[in-house]
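Issue 218. Parser rejects a valid record. Input:
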Amino acid sequence: MIIDQQEYYIKGLSYSIRSADETDAEALSSLRVQMDGETENMDREEGEAYIDAAGFRRIIHLDTDKSRNLFLVAVVAGEIVGYSRCEGRELKRFWHKVEFGVCVAKAYWGHGIGKNLLAQSIEWADQTGVEKMTLNVVASNEKAIELYQKSGFEIEGILKKDRRHVNGKYHDTIVMGRFKD
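Output the parser choked on:
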């Protein structure tokens, strides 16, 4: 699915949010590796589950064609600095919901990029008849949990010791869902 580009100016930073296109694939591949190494909030260690440019082109093509998928990018001065994705399933029993994920390069935290990627995704979901959005977030990411709750998500469960980081420390995962009114 494709949405119209939106422009933002927050805390001195101009950026846009738009649907990803296949020309973004190389930048997305590099950015994903970078972001995985910047924070422990992501599911992967740096370089793990690597997706090359061809892989991102396939994902973008798929998401553009499917009515239940949405792939957005945040762009600052021509550079992709974040992205989000909603992915629906083809099974009829799960047709009513999509899974949401978002990531923003650490240098751009605090400018509302993640919040606006989320808001655009929620607007798209509500307009296309999605009844439920789901996401997983590491329990120590309190800022993200607070943002999701302010956006209508509720905690549906906790997966205890769901992930183990390279330092050997275990972390819980919070499962959240947002139901369309």
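Fixed in the parser; the record now loads. Strands lie at 6-10, 13-19, 70-76, 79-88, 97-104, 132-138, 154-164, 170-179.
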